[in-house]
Specification:
The complex is a heterodimer of chains A (103) and B (346).
Chain A (H helix, E strand, L loop, with lengths): L10 E2 L9 H5 L5 E3 L4 E3 L10 H5 L5 E2 L7 H9 L24
Antiparallel strand pairs in A: 1-4, 2-3
Chain B lengths: L24 E3 L5 H11 L12 E5 L8 E5 L2 H10 L5 E6 L6 H7 L4 H11 L1 H4 L4 E4 L9 H8 L2 E4 L7 H7 L4 H4 L5 H5 L2 H23 L1 H21 L8 H23 L7 H22 L9 H34 L4
Parallel strand pairs in B: 1-2, 3-4, 5-6
Antiparallel strand pairs in B: 2-4
Helix pairs in contact in B: 4-6, 10-11, 11-12, 11-13, 12-13, 13-14
Classes of the chains: A alpha+beta (103), B alpha/beta (346).
């Protein structure tokens, strides 16, 4: 209750991992940690689905449906009759841009 | 395969460079009053897409072929954060064309990405400028960059720098990023700096709403609208980690409820003489203000560095119907009270 963020689309296949540790480097939320020869998922609920880990995994051991977690963009897409998952964030386009910060 | 948010067309091959290699520009670490004005205007959304730096290679200080190369976005706030953090150092800055968008957002779109890095390395002739083959990329650019792809296609190995440019001096000193440098934080200063933009977004519709409410229901109602919006755009970012629950919508409902209490109390006093008929007037702010604040709070998800798409979507389906229901009920109660008032019953 009152926590919509407990589940996400991050899937990790340790069989493929050879321990290059790239994912531990790129994840801004410390989801991955160095384990015994392989990386371990230590904070799965912190994942924000940015996709950095999957994109930088050279052996495709990580899968995640990355996208922008922006209600503004999703509601906007729904109102225009588009797929909410199309993920087009308003930033960089017309007005209605959501992210104003340097991140 | 990871789905790529925005950029559908991702050319696989880099087009061959036509014409001469781009000239190397010169920059420094000084942040001038003009830069500060530019940052201020960017924070308020003035000339939203106009805060750009020319893409290309920049010389900082007196770099040699062994000096490090740092990648950045062609957004003034990103570029200025990098060059000011590198004060007193020599190096090169490779500014990617991210269409005037910051590193994180551009990485999500893929414009700060593998293709653009490879293309920019070729266009600037970077390989003949430096002897080494290392490119320091901000960690928050990683969602758009595939380090092993960049290496394969350009010969440059990507080294992910810290999340914050301000950690670069320490990063360069110890030669690696500490776990703390790798974590994204969202402290009160980072949250509040976003408030002006949130406010600017909501300003016009709020002003219009306040005028309508003033004409229909008087000054307190107009103030109520302004208070609900200020709560959602300024108070909410400020208090984000301190409001109970994890969902932004429930946080917003709680905050909006607290802000609505004095308005409700004021209406109770005002209509005390009219007995039971004052009840709808007292309930109206409690039903109208929290959903307005909560909706703005929910829209703040896109400005934070930690809400997943799965979670935000869940929030939308869970709470937007509730918000709409509260708003409709509140408006109906207000209308009933207004009608009774007009008919002289109250």
């Amino acid at each position: 209750m009152f926590d919509s963020y407990r589940e996400n689309t991050l899937r990790y296949n340790p069989e493929r991992c050879f321990g290059c540790l790239r994912c531990t480097e790129v994840c801004p939320h410390g989801v991955f940690a160095e384990g015994d020869r392989r990386v371990e998922v230590v904070r799965p609920e912190e994942c924000m689905e940015c996709g950095a880990c999957a994109r930088n995994c050279p052996v495709q051991a990580i899968k995640v449906q990355s996208g922008v977690g922006c209600a503004w963009a999703m509601i906007g897409a729904a109102l225009r009759g588009k797929d909410m998952d199309s993920g087009t964030c308003g930033c960089g386009g017309e007005e209605g841009s959501c992210c104003g910060g340097e991140r | 395969m990871v789905s790529q948010p925005c950029c559908q067309s991702r050319p696989e091959a880099v087009p061959p460079v036509a014409g001469p290699v781009q000239e190397i520009r010169t920059t420094d670490s000084r942040i001038t009053p003009a830069d500060r004005l530019d940052h201020f205007l960017a924070r308020f959304g003035v000339n939203r897409m106009g805060h750009r730096v020319e893409p290309g290679l920049y010389r900082l200080g007196n770099p040699t072929p062994d000096s490090p190369v740092f990648a950045s976005a062609n957004y003034t706030l990103s570029f200025d954060a990098l060059r000011s953090a590198l004060a007193g150092r020599d190096g090169y800055i490779l500014v990617l064309d991210t269409h005037g968008i910051n590193v994180w957002c551009a990485a999500g779109k893929g414009t700060f990405g593998t293709d653009e890095i490879v293309r920019r390395i070729t266009l600037t002739g970077l390989a003949s400028v430096v002897r080494h083959r290392t490119l320091i990329v901000p960690q928050l650019g990683a969602p758009g960059v595939s380090a092993h792809e960049v290496l394969r296609r350009s010969g440059f190995s990507v080294e992910y720098g810290p999340v914050r440019a301000s950690d670069l001096p320490e990063y360069l000193a110890i030669g690696r990023a500490t776990p703390d440098m790798r974590r994204v934080r969202f402290p009160v200063a980072d949250r509040l700096v976003l408030a002006p933009m949130e406010l600017v977004h909501a300003a016009l519709s709020t002003a219009a709403g306040a005028v309508v409410l003033y004409l229909l229901a008087g000054l307190p109602a107009a103030f109520g609208a302004v208070a609900a919006v200020l709560a959602g755009t300024v108070l909410f970012p400020a208090l984000l980690p301190f409001i109970p629950t994890r969902d932004f919508s429930t946080k917003g409902l709680i905050l909006g409820g607290i802000v609505a209490l004095p308005f409700s109390a004021a209406f109770v006093m005002e209509t005390a003489a009219s007995g039971w008929a004052g009840v709808p007037a007292a309930l109206a702010p409690l039903l109208l203000m929290p959903p307005a604040t909560a909706y703005l709070a929910l829209n703040f998800t896109g400005s934070t560095p930690f809400t997943s798409r799965t979670g935000v979507k869940k929030e939308i389906f869970r709470y937007v119907p509730l918000m709409a229901g509260m708003a409709v009920l509140g408006a109906a109660l207000a209308a009933v009270f207004g009608a009774a008032h007009l008919l002289g019953a109250v």
